[in-house]
Amino acid sequence: MMAKNLYGLKEGEYLKIKEGLGREPNETELLLFSVMWSEHCSYKSSRKLLSLFPTTGKYVYRGPGENAGIVDIGSGLGIAFKIESHNHPSAVEPVQGAATGVGGIIRDILAVGARPIASMDCLFFGPPEERRTKFLREGVIRGVGSYGNAVGVPTVGGMTYYDPAYSGNPLVNAMCAGLVELDKVVSATAAKPGNILVLVGSKTGRDGIAGAAFASAELDASVKESKPQVQMGDPFAEKLLIECCLEILDKGLIVSMQDMGAAGITSSSVELAAKAKAGAEIYLDNVPLREEDMKPFEIALSESQERMLLAIDETNFGEVRAIADKWGLECAIIGKIIDEDRYVLTHKGEIVADLSASFLASSPETDWPVHKPDELGVSYPKVQGAALDRSDPSKVVDFLASLPQFEDKSWIYEQYDHMVQTRTTLGPGNPVAILYIKEADKLIALAAASDPWTCAADPFAGGVETVAMAIRKLAVAGAYPLGMTDCLNFPSPEVPENFWIISEVVKGMALACEKLNCPIVSGNVSLYNESHEGAILPTPVVCAVGAFDGMHFLKAKGPELSDRLFLVGKEASLQASAYRRYVEGRISGPVDPVNFDDERTFIERAIKTAALKLATCGRCVSLGGLALAAIKMASGSRFGLEIKGGDVQFLFGEGGPRALYSVPEAKTSEFLKVWDGFPVKEIGRVREDKNVRFA
Length: 695
Hints:
Elements: H1 11-21, H2 27-36, H3 39-42, H4 47-50, E1 60-62, E2 69-74, E3 77-85, H5 87-92, H6 94-110, E4 115-125, H7 131-151, E5 155-162, E6 171-181, E7 196-201, H8 211-214, H9 235-250, E8 256-259, H10 264-275, E9 279-283, H11 296-301, E10 307-312, H12 317-326, E11 330-338, E12 343-347, E13 350-355, H13 357-361, E14 378-379, H14 393-402, H15 410-413, E15 424-426, E16 433-437, E17 442-449, H16 452-457, H17 459-477, E18 480-489, H18 496-515, E19 520-526, E20 530-531, E21 534-535, E22 539-547, E23 564-568, H19 578-584, E24 586-587, H20 596-611, E25 617-620, H21 625-634, E26 640-643, H22 648-652, E27 659-663, H23 668-674, E28 680-687, E29 692-694
Parallel strand pairs: 4-5, 9-12, 18-19, 26-29
Antiparallel strand pairs: 1-2, 2-3, 3-6, 4-6, 7-10, 7-11, 8-10, 9-11, 12-13, 14-24, 15-16, 16-17, 17-22, 18-22, 20-21, 23-27, 23-28, 25-27, 26-28
Helix pairs in contact: 6-7, 6-9, 7-9, 9-12, 17-18, 17-20
Family: Belongs to the FGAMS family.
Protein name: Phosphoribosylformylglycinamidine synthase subunit PurL
Subcellular location: Cytoplasm
């Protein structure tokens, strides 16, 4: 082995760098490669798998490769959206880790020229009774709320789940959506030689240095040592930055734009140059600093927050600076795009790095060995419901409903402002969030989904189920899908069994996206999510964006007293269910295979049911099964429900296209006509009291 510090690079990668340069890299250059070739920046382990995703479609305006994907909603407008992870930083410093995750995804949306209008947070923690989980959960929720509330972007939905697999490595995935005029979209590929590179925003400090490399490694037991690698956020500066950049854009002064996220100035400028098939010179002396005696690599790799890099025509700098001054932000020329394949950093009159821009931006792909695990599934030694009388369904229902996994989460989302900007028509606590786009007189829906337990028990089926679950949520509300963003959270790909699971999950997701006409337009990959306590479950998270043909949507709660209850869909599986986890102590596969004809039929008829106003309310049957869907449908309502008959599988089975509908008596025949030929069963009625009973 080599004694030289490779800063996280593999020895083979270092040798490839030497070969590509024809010389030894100096220390600054080696540090640049260590972040640009990190898993976080390069996706070197997942690029081949990501190529399986369908990325084009009827509504796709911009797909992967830009800072965010964009779907066309008509009237010359688009919705830009993306999801990102901030898992490792949140495990170390939960408040700032979560806050800067929100800030970073907002800037990704801003980078395509969109105004951020909504965000969602998808959180996974260890058992809530654990002391560390309490600390992490409190900090993450405070970070999400404090940043989102202050920056003026509503948090309109999300999810919070618990499992022992996340005790040492929580997951914090943040999604943001923005509204953009399609003729003002900013492309990451539009910079050209002669453009100057302008930093706008906050000053640069030492926070977050090498954060990209940190996010590409496993969490070790000494997480306190990693605190300098967690960025510090200022939502008020972010709010000024949003308004400043949108004003500059509105005046037509921006050629291209990048968020300074992972790897800071280096990543943003290298990406601008490489995507333009050009190079860049960076003048580190010109970078506004908030700390003295910063070394060249510290300036280049700092991940200080609330900064954007603009490529503009040099003649427009005066006007850009005047706008930045108006908003009280730093504004400096820190480089330029050049007509050769070089990436040059200068500091105090010296060249401190001189590399090929394209070489720096193109890490070699990594092909990890693949091996199917001898056994799939997860065992839970502490079975909380082992002593339950399983012959009494109501006792099992009461037990599951009391678990933190399924408890009312209003205490979390009530800490978030979901009404700022006044677009939110349906907010947190519902399967979908619905926003009114007044500029287009149109409703859009956002739906998040994840099912790590099915992914652990049957990875391919879990990938399919994750995608299908989000689309079903849209459909039951009455929306058709426009596109999807994904965050792939997995443990180390270097373990052959892990990489097999990763591959199968992605293949399942890709097939579902193709069959259900919902392309992936943006996303993120987060690997090495594990600690000394073990690896996380395979956890893909998706957020789908949908639209409505009219101004009506179907709510998920609030049945009326005269309503009849119908379950549509086939009997579901218990294999990866909450019942198996909490009552029997083990989940395993195989899970029932998905029938895409059934899925498409379900989506079509669910949308029709909502459009024709044939139900008072409707809800997908997903995690927790029919029993938990019924409880959620009745929560906060004037009336309760009575569910007739049914065994354990009927009440607690999960997966597949299934929904519970509360249907007015007068509309029953028309409802049944819409669902003719699809499994449908009357299963109960609405009760006058507020209880949910299982007879």
